[in-house]
Write a structure and sequence with these properties.
The protein has 263 residues and is an alpha/beta fold. It folds into 2 domains: 11-191, 3-Layer(aba) Sandwich (Rossmann fold); 201-262, Helicase, Ruva Protein, domain 3. The chain contains 11 helices and 9 strands. α5 runs parallel beside α7 (154-162). The termini are far apart. Bound molecules: S-adenosyl-L-homocysteine. The site of S-adenosyl-L-homocysteine (SAH) has 24 residues, from β1. S-adenosyl-L-methionine binds at residues 16, 18, 43, 64, 88, 108. It is found in: Cytoplasm.
Length: 263
């Protein structure tokens, strides 16, 4: 394939190539590049963002599922060639490359797997001090939203338990080829100084997911399946709906539940 051959966008891979250089540069500049030596870009496509990362004082790695894009990258970014991982981000064991060292994650993400990308990041939070990039606007807003907001949900609570989340800016469909049907939003996650929680972390995930499965109901009703004591369920916090609880209240709730289960 010749060097200049452009990758044909494939819908099933969520391919929408960004064609605005200044936005690509702005996204690349959203990371601090401090406190880690490696950056992993998910879904580089034809490398619009990658070329700005390559100018930074870190080692850039990319993971891309599309063979045609991988070929393009290897042909056009010679210095990157050994650091192109041709794999599905969701399935690949990243420590084959990172060997337990810290790294940041960045990307103009494939929107069809955006929640899974965030969940995998949360699982690997010990190694990921920073994360930034572009999602469907709604998803980016949801991740950053606070209690009381209509879009506050599982992703908001679990992400913000470990990371400070900041919505940076909105990107309109016209700067992509092909244009997506929705607006996009860029966000930045910075891991908290103390991100080890005072509650059982697995139980927090379970409580948050169970509560938001029925977001209109009070916790008294939605958490029935956890078999809690009547005594605990009398606590006033159980009269609240999940969207009213702050992250720290979810952590307090998890501690209450933990103690109840252990007694
Ligand atoms: N960053 C490029 C492309 C964005 S489109 C740009 O801004 O122009 C999203 C990219 O993610 C595509 O290149 C697609 O092939 C890739 N992709 C989709 N699913 C993936 C997965 N599971 N793992 C790795 N890359 C994936």
């Amino acid at each position: 394939m010749s060097k200049d051959h452009q990758v044909k966008a494939k819908k099933h891979l969520g391919q929408h190539f960004l064609n605005d250089e200044s936005i690509a540069e702005k996204i690349a500049n959203s990371l601090s590049f401090k406190g880690y030596n490696h950056v992993l870009e998910i879904g580089p496509g034809m490398g619009v963002l990658t070329k700005y990362l390559l100018k930074k004082d870190v080692t850039t790695h990319v993971i891309e599922i599309d063979t045609e894009s991988v070929e393009y990258l290897k042909n056009n970014y010679l210095t990157l060639a050994n650091r192109v991982i041709e794999q599905d981000f969701l399935k690949y064991n990243l420590n084959q490359v990172f060997k337990n060292e810290p790294f940041a994650i960045i990307g103009n993400y494939p929107y069809n797997i955006s929640s899974q990308i965030v969940f995998k990041t949360l699982e690997m939070r010990d190694q990921i001090p920073e994360f930034s990039g572009m999602f469907q606007k709604e998803v980016a807003q949801r991740i950053c939203s606070k209690e009381g907001s209509k879009v506050y949900g599982i992703l908001s609570v679990l992400t913000q338990a470990f990371y400070d989340a900041e919505y940076l800016f909105t990107v309109h469909p016209t700067v992509f080829n092909p244009p997506p049907k929705v607006d996009s939003g860029v966000l930045l996650l910075k891991r908290k100084e103390n991100y080890v929680l005072s509650c059982n972390e697995n139980l927090l995930f379970k409580v948050v997911k169970t509560a938001f499965q029925q977001r209109r109901k009070t916790l008294r009703n939605s958490l029935k399946t956890l078999n809690l004591s009547d005594n605990l369920r009398e606590d006033s916090i159980f009269g609240m709906r999940p969207e009213q609880l702050s992250v720290s209240q979810f952590i307090e709730l998890t501690i209450l539940i933990e103690n109840d289960i252990n007694n």
